[in-house]
Fold these 2 entries.
Entry 1:
Amino acid sequence: MERLYLDHAATTPVAPEVVAAMLPYLTSAFGNPSSAHSFGREAREAVERARRQVAASLGAEPAEIVFTSGGTEADVLALRGAAYACRRRGNHIITTAVEHHAVLDTCLALDTEGFDVTVLPVDERGKVRLEDVAAAIRNTTILISVMHANNEVGTVQPIRAICEVAHRHGVLVHTDAVQSFGKIPVSVADLGVDLLSLSGHKIYGPKGVGALYVRAGTPLEPLFHGGGQERGLRPGTENVAGIVGLGRAAALVKEKLAEETRCLRALREYLKKELVARLPDVRFNGDQEDCLPGLLHFSIPGVDGPTLLKMLDGEGIAVSGGAACTTGETKPSYVLLALGLAEDYTRCPVRVTLGRSTTVAAVERFVAVLDGAVRRLRGEKQGG
């Protein structure tokens, strides 16, 4: 059975070009970047080249890029680092109900440490209302964190407008761009953010590496202390091979983004059309216009979601019900609940995320297998 991978929001395969770039730093070029000899200089040059590549893909300066172990660490460094650096000025933080757990759980922790956190609702498309953001700002507000694109339903948030409102009040803005980077244009100048998180394994790079963009002059405290690596903001010997892989993956993003976005958007629309033709009662979740091009989240009423996903997996098709970090949870997705979905729609979610290797034939196979599985489940229900 040929396996079909349609879960690129969870992780992506490492691109061959990325593997080739990393390989020397897993074998012969093994030096410590902090060493002064030629082996160390070789590794340092590789790290700084990757920093330039990541910066160029964001329209940032290399000095504004801090390498981390992934998107979660980048989120935590942004939130805790900015919160504690600005604590003398205030203690109020604003976020939304649909953020990744890395943001929500960190905000909950900060709430127990003397900070005051406001969690804003979203509308039925999963989008935060700009007027709610403006109304929530106080004279003690120091930080707003709103994700660029939602990892479950793909809704893109109005980050630039949020930044304009926040900066009028002297408030910092962080955005988790882990899902948007590599799928839609992400320019720190266009967005206007002070802090931005990204991850390597979402853009055909390796797992275990990410980056935080820190606009020049933005106050930030390190999470922990040790060596002076990454300007003291992320001490510890650098993951040279991983950083090299992230740099090469970011360079590929810059090269391929326009064409990939066009192809993914066309495939997504084709998938929607085929689903409606086979399953007229399907419900599409999230903003269907302002969304990630390769992500489609939908609900099929009257079908048990986990059972359906197992049936698809049995046919060699990998999709998910939502975020990979919440797989295995039996309660409905907090993101879908925040959108106000009726219970029947929260029990049967399917998230399909297309990638570079996805073809029209793959979409057609998925829809045919899904249709058969739904018919069997509904037949079992009717017969029982």
Entry 2:
Amino acid sequence: MSARPSIFISGAAAGIGRATALRFLHEGWRVGAFDIDSAALEQLAGDVPVNFYGNFMRGELDVTDNDSWCAALARFAETTEGGGINVVFNNAGVLCSGDFTATAIEDHERLLRVNVQGVLAGCYHALPHLEAAAGSRVGARVINMSSASAIYGQPALVSYSTSKFAVRGLTEALNLEWQDKGINVLDVMPLFVQTRMVEGETTPTMRRLGVRLAPEDVAETVVRMAYYRGNRVHWPVGGQTKRMLLASKLAPSSLVRAINRWLARA
């Protein structure tokens, strides 16, 4: 069993998950890369440097299926010290955009299953492995993928924004509930990131603000979060998101609404 610190990543085959997996391998961590896309996982495995391959595991995971979660976590924990997992990065997510009723209700429902149920299940089933790692040098934490869309509800991203508000609430609640267990629960909040998920998307907000972040920017923040021991819960990525989050705290709610209405105007 590896004595290295360990991270389990959902949605690891592409984009932010892929960048995070490679970044943590360079940090010397034991990395479990799990995704529903087995072909993309094979491509990721092919890009892992040979000298890091002994610290890399890949496997299939359907985040909407509880049995799949249990099997994936158990398989990875068999390779870690004492069956503990230092970090669970709930990264898997999907996006649908456009007018709310122009999108099929089944697509909204699928998004919520992946983005909300998937994160909730990841936290729920990972708890025994996090508890096993809580007393280690690195400690134990959950990092949930939230978004700048959880700062104020976004037109044309209605169900996505809804899902990220749910992740934000889950993170805040578990951050308090699991504190006495020695488990820190945090979320990372980027704006638009240059991944396949935003390819072809042209919401008004995206056109006004642009897509300025790369997956590596988020991965770098996740690395800092993995070692963090303080009380900070929400981690915005990039200057735009930091300013938006600050404005939401300091500005009157009417002004925040007006700004978001202008951003979303066609």
